[in-house]
Write a structure and sequence with these properties.
It is a single chain. By secondary structure, the chain is an alpha/beta fold. It has six helices and seven strands. The N and C termini lie far apart (77 Å).
Length: 224
C-alpha cells in the first residue's frame, strides 16, 4: 500500500536520508543572508566598541536619533492620512450643493467658495458629472463666486469636457468643437450674459465653457 508524502516534507533518498524541498530551501536562503549580515555587523560593532567605547556610543546615538526622526515622520504621514480618510466623508456632506439653472439647452452651473483641495475638486466633479449623466451636456461654468482655485481643477475641466462630448454622442446630438484663443484650453467669457449669447449661436453640443473668471486666476486659466 502507498502513502502520499505531506506537502513540503522530505522525500526519501539513498540511505534513508531526507532532502529539503525547493520551497524550504528558498525560505532558508532568503533568511540566511540577512542573518549573516546582522551577525557580521554585531561582531564588528562589538570589536570596535571594545576599542573605542566613547566613539561607538556617539555613533549609535546619532543613528538612534536618525531612526527616531524617520519613524516620527512616517508616523505623522500615517496619522495625517488617517485623519483625512476619516474626515473626508464629513467634509463631503458639508459641501454646499451645486447651484445651476437651465437656459434653453444650456446649463449654467455656479461654482462658489474656495476649491483648494483634492477632495473639493473631486466633490465638484461628482456634482458636475451628475448633471451630465442627467443629459445636461452643454455647460457654462460660472466662476464669479470663486475666491481661490486649485490647479487640480484643470484636470476636472478636461474630464468634464470629455464626458460632455460623450453624452452628446450618446444622445445623437451633433458635436462641434468650441473655438478657443491660441494657447488656451477653454473658452472664457467675461460674464454670464455674453456666454449665453455666444454659445446660444453655437451649432453643436457636448461642450464646456467658463465665464466670470476672477482676474486673480484668469492668468492661470489654462491650469485651473
Amino acid at each position: 500500500m502507498r502513502f502520499g508524502l505531506p506537502t513540503g516534507g522530505r522525500s526519501p533518498g539513498p540511505g534513508g536520508r531526507g532532502r529539503r524541498s525547493p520551497a524550504r530551501r528558498r525560505v532558508w536562503q532568503s533568511f540566511s543572508f540577512p542573518l549573516l549580515v546582522l551577525t557580521i555587523n554585531c561582531a564588528l560593532l562589538f570589536t570596535v566598541g571594545r576599542r573605542f567605547p566613547l566613539e561607538t556610543v556617539i555613533v549609535l546615538a546619532i543613528f538612534g536619533v536618525a531612526a527616531i526622526g524617520v519613524a516620527l515622520y512616517v508616523g505623522e504621514l500615517v496619522i495625517v492620512d488617517f485623519i483625512l480618510w476619516i474626515t473626508t466623508p464629513i467634509m463631503h456632506e458639508i459641501l454646499a450643493p451645486l447651484e445651476y439653472e437651465q437656459v434653453g439647452e444650456m446649463t449654467i452651473a455656479k461654482l462658489s467658495d474656495d476649491i483648494v483641495s483634492v477632495w473639493q475638486c473631486q466633490a465638484f466633479e461628482r456634482q458636475l458629472k451628475r448633471l451630465i449623466d442627467e443629459h445636461h451636456c452643454d455647460l457654462i461654468l460660472d466662476f464669479s463666486g470663486i475666491g481661490r482655485l486649485s490647479s487640480n481643477f484643470r484636470g476636472v475641466l478636461i474630464r468634464l469636457t470629455t464626458a460632455a462630448r460623450r453624452e452628446a454622442e450618446k444622445l445623437g446630438s451633433p458635436y462641434r468643437p468650441v473655438a478657443v484663443p491660441p494657447d488656451e484650453l477653454f473658452r472664457v467669457f467675461a460674464d454670464r450674459k455674453s456666454a449665453v449669447e455666444e454659445m446660444g449661436r453655437h451649432d453643436g453640443h457636448g461642450w464646456v465653457v467658463l465665464c466670470s473668471v476672477p482676474v486673480g486666476i484668469r492668468a492661470v486659466s489654462d491650469a485651473v
